[in-house]
């Protein structure tokens, strides 16, 4: 017993009650188990034509071997069939499925599966000379689990009834072909009409592909000759239209891709520029000043040898001050850099790590020398000599301070 059946037992009610043309379908408890049954309409039990038709359907039903057909056996009371016991299985009327799970129509492949299931079931019945007549949310079932289409009672057995509108009461007449309600011919085209009407109802709020919209429109034509001749024709038409639509979409996508490729090709190709030829200007001879007896003194350039003693003394004083500034600044910077090499912590490193750090700091000393020499505007050779002197002096001082020669603080091998 599943959850729905447990709730129904507590309420002492019936599950999935649905009015069929021949009676009421429901799931009810019989001998401690829930079973699907159809209670035959009591008002029809006295109708001889209905009784004969129901008996004929019961005799034929078990011989219909198809996965879309629900089989049943009659229960006879006082010589009359009062109930139909359906074969074991979970069959839910479509109207209850749509009411409880309306989003099912938007599930992937449901439209194709449901449409194909209806047409295949109808084609099977037609191959045995039967017509379902009324495909409606009350008379079409879905099997729990795989949502397969299931059919129960064929309307063609009851075409001899005089009042077809009364037989298909409670809204089911909306899904019956007009010619059937008027007492006309019951054939394959009337089932096509009923299937089209059901599909229009089920997918009324769904985004129907073009292939389905055109198929439903043709299936529900008022004149039988304007409809599809058989379920197979309708199914082939849908498949053909879908195939054509997919081909057109594929072609359109291919065309767009081709245009993008061509556009990208021309976009990446270098543009050829038209270069206008320009005649070069005539070359004019330049005068060689040297040949004309030019002297640098005429432009105010004075050789060093011609400087006065006062100018030479001033230049020497300027150079001395510049070297003093460089010496003070570089000594401070060198002391900072060398302190990173010669300290008790670094001297405990391995020889490899010590050398790596020393090389890095030597580069830093050289960079500081170049920058400070440029700031002080002194000759690079002179700055190098001063820097070498300062580095040697500071190095000896720091080695002596940390006891470079002791084994305890020496560099590890």
Automatic annotation (TrEMBL):
Tell me where in this chain the Protein kinase domain is found.
Answer: 1-260
In terms of Pfam families, this protein maps to:
Pkinase
Indicate the transmembrane segments per the record: 244-266
The question of whether Electron transport is a record keyword is answered with no
Q: Which InterPro entries match?
A: Kinase-like_dom_sf, Prot_kinase_dom
What keywords appear on the UniProt entry? Membrane, Transmembrane, Transmembrane helix
The highest taxon in the source lineage is Bacteria
Return the protein name: Protein kinase domain-containing protein
Provide the organism lineage as a comma list: Bacteria, Pseudomonadati, Bacteroidota, Bacteroidia, Bacteroidales
């Amino acid at each position: 017993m599943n959850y729905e059946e447990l709730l129904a037992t507590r309420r002492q009610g019936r599950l999935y009650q649905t009015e069929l043309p021949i009676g009421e379908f429901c799931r009810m408890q019989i001998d401690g188990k829930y079973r699907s049954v159809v209670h035959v309409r009591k008002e029809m039990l006295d109708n001889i034509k209905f009784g004969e038709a129901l008996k004929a359907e019961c005799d034929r039903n078990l011989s219909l071997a198809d996965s879309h057909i629900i089989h049943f056996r009659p229960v006879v009371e006082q010589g009359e069939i009062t109930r139909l016991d359906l074969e074991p299985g979970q069959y839910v009327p479509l109207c209850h499925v749509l009411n409880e799970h309306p989003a099912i129509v938007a599930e992937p492949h449901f439209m194709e599966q449901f449409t194909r299931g209806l047409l295949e079931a109808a084609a099977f019945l037609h191959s045995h000379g039967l017509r379902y007549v009324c495909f409606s949310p009350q008379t079409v079932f879905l099997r729990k689990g795989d949502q397969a289409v299931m059919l129960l009672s064929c309307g063609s057995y009851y075409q001899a009834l005089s009042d077809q509108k009364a037989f298909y009461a409670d809204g089911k007449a909306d899904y019956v072909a007009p010619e059937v309600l008027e007492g006309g011919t019951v054939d394959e085209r009337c089932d096509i009409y009923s299937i089209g009407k059901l599909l229009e109802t089920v997918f009324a709020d769904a985004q129907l592909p073009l292939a389905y919209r055109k198929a439903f429109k043709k299936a529900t034509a008022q004149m039988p000759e304007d409809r599809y001749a058989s379920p197979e024709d309708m199914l082939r038409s849908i498949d053909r239209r879908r195939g054509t639509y997919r081909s057109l979409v594929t072609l359109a996508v291919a065309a767009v891709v081709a245009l993008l490729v061509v556009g990208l090709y021309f976009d990446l190709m270098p543009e050829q520029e038209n270069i206008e030829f320009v005649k070069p200007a005539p070359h004019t001879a330049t005068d060689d000043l040297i040949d004309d007896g030019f002297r640098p003194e005429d432009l105010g350039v004075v050789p060093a040898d011609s400087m006065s003693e006062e100018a030479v003394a001033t230049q020497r004083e300027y150079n001395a001050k510049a070297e003093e500034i460089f010496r003070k600044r570089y000594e401070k910077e060198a002391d900072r850099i060398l302190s990173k090499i010669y300290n008790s912590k670094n001297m405990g490193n391995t020889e490899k790590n010590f050398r790596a750090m020393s090389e890095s700091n030597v580069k830093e000393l050289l960079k500081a020398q170049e920058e400070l020499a440029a700031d002080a505007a002194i000759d690079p050779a002179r700055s190098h000599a001063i820097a070498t002197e300062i580095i040697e002096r500071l190095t000896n001082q720091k080695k002596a301070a940390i006891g470079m020669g002791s084994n305890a603080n020496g560099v590890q091998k």
